[in-house]
Amino acid sequence: MKRIKLTVAYDGTNYCGWQLQPNGITIEEVLNRALTDLLKEPISVVGASRTDSGVHSLGNVAVFDTENRMPADKICLALNQRLPEDVRVQSSEEVPPGWHPRKHNCVKTYEYRILNRKIPVPTLRLYTHFCYFDLDEDKMREAAAFLVGEHDFRSFCTLRKQDEDTVRTIYSLTVERTEDDVIIIRVSGSGFLYNMVRIIAGTLMKVGMGMCAPEDMEQILAARDRQAAGPTAPARGLTLVSMEYEKELRPEVRGINREWDYVLDQTRTETEGIACLTVNRCDDRWLSSLMARVLRYAFRNGAEQIYAEDRQGRLKEGQQYGTFVLEKSEETDNGSRRFIAGNTVQKAENP
């Protein structure tokens, strides 16, 4: 048995998104059917990003397991002969058996395209959102800058469950106008919530139309309320451009905004299985969720022992954050207490 990774491009116009649906054909269904036919065994792919109906992709990622002896790099060539014209596998390669496209750190990049002119162009109608009103891309760019960094993007998503973790990191967010009056919103981040990019695009368009000021983005973020942001822009303008997986852990992860400031040191994670979380500052309201989120992230990255320190001295033995409990502590050089965080789920699985 071997695991194969696919990089998939598709025009999403005629599909009900990526994930299998009872009411229409999807990319996942098309891939499963073609792979089953090619490899002569039942195949079910697992996708990295479950794009919505009408959304396009240049580089979505999926994996599947097979016992077929066909060389991994040849699968894409044979598979493309069985796929419709609007779906093409760009590459296929073998990956380790435990590699999962949604459980490894990744930088996702999306583009949202807006055709901003008085009369639409028919050849662009499937890949851009047409906007008749003049958009000020300079103001949109100014507004976009407020969203860069680690924030709670609850205002910019459609919640699937009330306790969903809505903190994400945007590494870059640019707004550019091309010579043919297409405004391209390009955003890269650690991951995105349901409808997040389309709501960001809809909100930036409101700014571009002058319906709100660029600096209003701060208040929209702080509101943590979907009603505070703009509309969800249509799917046709959105394309998943790429997914770049980390080949090695970042030695340091830092989250800093008006409400918190923390550092996760991972310099010893790969060699010794140790990670150290230091919370320099955090509003009391968000300390519990921050601790649970970052401890879970460190554990997923391979940390077997996680040290946690709060410079404001609020941590105590026995406190629980998600599946982690603070155990024994020790005094640091600066006089504060540092705790070891134990994973209760891991202990339950390994009594």
DSSP strand tally? 17
Q: How confident overall, as mean pLDDT? A: 94
What is the 3D shape? flat
What profile does the largest beta sheet have?
10 strands, mixed
Structural category is alpha+beta
- Provide a count of the helices: 8
Write out the CATH superfamily name of the largest domain: Pseudouridine synthase I, catalytic domain, C-terminal subdomain
Low-confidence stretches: 347-351
CATH architect. name of the largest domain: 2-Layer Sandwich
Q: Element order, helices and strands?
A: EHEEHEEEHEEEHHEEEHEHEEEEH
Description of the structure:
- This protein has 351 residues and is of the alpha+beta class.
- The protein has three domains: 2-95, Alpha-Beta Plaits (2-Layer Sandwich); 106-242, 2-Layer Sandwich (Alpha-Beta Plaits), CATH 3.30.70; 252-349, no CATH class.
- The protein is built from eight helices and 17 strands.
- The protein has helices at 27-39, 72-80, 137-144, 196-208, 216-223, 269-272, 284-300, 344-349, and strands spanning 2-10, 46-47, 56-66, 87-95, 106-116, 129-131, 149-152, 167-177, 182-189, 238-245, 252-256, 260-265, 274-282, 305-310, 320-321, 324-331, 337-343.
- Strands 1, 2, 3, 4, 5, 6, 7, 8, 9 and 10 form a ten-stranded mixed beta sheet that branches. Strands 11-12-13-14-17-16-15 form a seven-stranded mixed beta sheet.
- Helix 3 packs across helix 4.
- The longest helix has 17 residues, at 284-300.
- The radius of gyration is 23 Å and the shape is flat.
- The two termini are 30 Å apart.
